[in-house]
Design a protein that fits this description.
By secondary structure, the protein is α+β, with helices and mostly antiparallel strands. The protein is built from five helices and 15 strands. A hairpin with a 2-residue loop joins strand 9 and strand 10.
Length: 284
């Protein structure tokens, strides 16, 4: 039997994209709410504040009657394209382009628990519940800005070990924003942490009447776990991306070949020692 060889480019693992996101084939789409409003945000994020260049994502926040969903429009697009390609009989399908943030969150309009999904390319979906904070804001009344034509006020808060600055508009009296942010007397149109590791800025706002969908996928490998499990897994992943991939493939390093930036095969032991600086969004 021929030995299976998987070539992983070290430059992708170490310098460009530690967590390439793969398209998944949608098996079932279930409407869970109806969105009244849709906000489109650009997200610039880094694995660590010292990372030179930020990754880019386009995030959609749907605000419904009972819940708010925040997801990557890029990942959703490629999942849909891949699903259609497979439906038409294709043997291969399009993969996700770029490095979108692979997190999806649905949180209740009222309530303190959110449902989250985090996907890694070589592992299962991590499906877990986490708390939604009640944020205390300090208002900076002397500073204003204009975003999307709306006059915005400035406010700051501390959350999970980071300090954030937000710009919100009372012209849209919706106390929401991206991720878990909210509790202001208007929609958050821009928010960033002091290190600018995560920066969201609204690119569009519109009224809508579209369904908020929840998806299940053909591979059926969702893994229900705790927030602590996810945090530990991501730390392990960034500590040794190659080692993590080998472990997820059954631990047989003989099945894997690592290609370096120079195009030459690397020693697997050397490759597994490579790590990526990582600082989670929620530090504590």
């Amino acid at each position: 039997m021929k030995q299976l060889i998987l070539i992983i480019c070290a430059i992708l693992c170490i310098e460009v994209s530690a967590q390439e996101t793969c398209s998944r084939i949608i098996d079932k789409s279930t409407p869970v709410d109806t969105a009244r409003y849709k906000v489109t945000y650009s997200l610039k994020y880094k694995f660590h504040p010292d990372q030179m260049d930020a990754f880019n994502d386009t995030r959609i926040v749907q605000i419904g009657k009972h819940s708010v969903k925040d997801y990557s429009d890029i990942i959703n697009h490629f999942d849909s394209v891949a699903t259609e390609q497979v439906r038409r009989g294709a043997e291969s399908y399009s993969n996700v382009s770029g490095n979108p943030w692979p997190l999806e969150i649905i949180r209740p309009i009222r309530g303190d628990k959110a449902d989250l999904k985090y996907r890694l390319s070589v592992s299962a979906f991590f499906v877990y519940s986490d708390s939604v904070p009640s944020l205390e804001w300090n208002f900076i009344d002397e500073e204003t800005d204009t975003i999307l034509g709306y006059e915005c006020r400035k406010a700051t808060t501390e959350f999970a070990g980071r300090r954030y600055t937000a710009w919100f508009t009372t012209e849209i009296p919706l106390p929401f924003g991206p991720y878990k942010f909210g509790d202001l007397p208007g929609l958050i149109l821009k928010i960033e942490d002091t290190e600018q590791q995560f920066v969201w800025e609204a690119m569009g706002f519109e009224s809508t009447n579209s369904p908020i969908m929840e998806y299940s996928y053909r591979d059926g490998n969702d893994k229900r776990c705790s927030t602590t499990d996810v945090e530990k897994t991501l730390v392990r992943y960034f500590k040794s991306p190659v080692g993590f991939m080998i472990s997820e493939m059954g631990g047989d390093s003989g099945r894997v070949r690592i290609m370096g930036k120079d195009g030459k095969l690397m020693n697997n032991n050397d490759a597994t020692q490579m790590s990526i600086p990582y600082k989670p969004l929620e530090i504590k």
